[in-house]
Amino acid sequence: MIRVGIVDDHKIVAAGLEKLVNETDVAQVVGVAHSVAGCRDMLEEIQPDVLLLDVSMPDGSGIDLCPKIKAKYPQVKVLMLTSYGELATVTCALEAGADGYVLKNSMPEEILEGIQAVASGARFLCDEVNLMFKTRDDNPLELTRREYSLLRLIAENRTNAEIADRLCLGYETVKSYRKNLNAKLGAHNTVQLLQNAKALKLV
Question: Which residue, 5, 25, 194, 202, could crosslink 51 as a Cys pair with Cβ 3.0–4.6 Å?
Fold first, then answer.
């Protein structure tokens, strides 16, 4: 049996995951925590084979916690289980040492598949995340020189009016360029745009 730990600040979600895992014949939940501090306490007592770890918790980030877990308990496989599906967040989690990444809207079978995969030593990405990476790899990101200039000015917190003045463009043209940048980087707002740009080392 694969021994599973769950770390999620939403108790209802954690309880649902515990029920899902315990109803299988391949895994069993051995510990549940609802915060970063609780996770540390749990791991002092018991080290599961696979730790289902949420990204956002009231007292910290699962991504920041991940490398600390891997350093102290290298045998524990970390499967991020979260609602955050942005490219930047997934990239940061994998760079932090996560063994897999599953979205909470995944099918129960996919969550269980992820637990088994990382327990066996493989990396696992749910279908939605895997498709996002495949799409990115199949369509390498190409920005024009003007788009790079625009991105740098956005990173400097320049307004559209300031950007238009600096690049000698019309205000509406700048808005159009920003819309194209968001589409290319899979962003819905400026914060997400800059997060994804940093993850791809564009700024």
Answer: 5
